[in-house]
Specification:
This protein has ten helices and eight strands. The protein is α/β, with parallel strands linked by helices.
Length: about 280
């Protein structure tokens, strides 16, 4: 596992570092409150469970205060995904962010389809302006759009490589004081200080599984919530990307297509051992 999980770390130390945070997720089983689109709920819930986290899919304003109070009490996090967007969802997102910020609960934003329509782009920016976001996780087109450039997204799919969006990610990280993760063939993780970490793991077939990126965003929330002392949010995000990417690579062995890859991926998330 030759992923850069810190400066100056050797091969064994890097594998141990990844193993340490994966073990922390499994030991803590952080509660991840997901306000997410209907398409992604299944893979996010099952993926989080397989990885060792505890998912919740509460989005009604009538119970968000109570739900996030529990998230706060157990040291969990909130994952916000704007996939199936309408005004009622926006009200729920804003309610959740207000409660998170009042209670110092970390929240992650997946700006699904930003750049595809102005409605999506403006909604994501409005949510970020509320403050408190710890990680933005999007594809190249989405991150470019949030940075004020032409993202050119084709629906929720990116038409831009992740490398093209690194400069926009740096700007966003500095502007909102959070980590920005641009996912793609190579994942780029930018922190507010301008440092960039990279993760090369994954398989192209993962793009044929709907909501795989949404799953990654929820895993980022889990890794941030469970990170041991000494891990930054950027490193936790890098570890989440590496975890999913390495699991996808292992799952692709013997997979005949997206259907078997999805099933095998769940098994790999459950049984992952970075030192194996």
């Amino acid at each position: 596992i030759s992923v850069v999980l810190g400066k100056g770390l050797g091969f064994v130390a890097m594998a141990e570092r990844l193993g340490q945070i994966v073990a922390a997720v499994r030991a803590k089983a952080p509660l991840i409150q997901c306000l997410t689109n209907y398409v992604s709920m299944d893979i996010m819930a099952n993926g989080l469970l397989a990885a060792g986290a505890s998912p919740a899919m509460v989005h009604s304003q009538s119970e968000l205060h109570d739900a996030i109070a529990v998230v706060k009490a157990v040291g969990g996090a909130v994952s916000i995904n704007i996939g199936t967007l309408d005004n009622s969802w926006i009200a729920c997102f804003k309610c959740a962010i207000e409660v998170c910020n009042q209670n110092s609960v970390p929240w992650v934003l997946d700006p699904v389809g930003a750049g595809f329509t102005g409605f999506r782009t403006h909604t994501a920016i409005d949510l970020l302006k509320m403050g408190g976001c710890v990680v933005i996780r999007g594809n190249g087109s989405e991150i470019l759009a949030l940075g004020g450039e032409c993202g050119g997204g084709k629906g929720v799919d990116s038409t831009k490589g992740s490398d093209v969006a690194v400069d926009a990610a740096k700007v966003l990280a500095a502007r909102y004081g959070c980590v920005v993760c641009v996912s793609g063939a190579v994942d780029y993780i930018c922190d507010p200080a301008g440092e960039v970490l990279t993760c090369p793991y994954g398989v192209e077939m993962l793009t044929k599984i709907t909501a795989a990126g949404c799953l990654l965003s929820s895993l980022v929330a889990a890794f941030v919530a469970a990170k041991p002392e000494g891990f930054s949010n950027a490193e936790a995000t890098l570890c989440a990307c590496s975890f999913l990417g390495l699991c996808a690579e292992a799952a692709s062995v013997g997979s005949k297509g997206p259907g078997s890859l999805r099933a095998n991926l769940m098994d790999q998330l459950y049984s992952f051992d970075p030192c194996a």
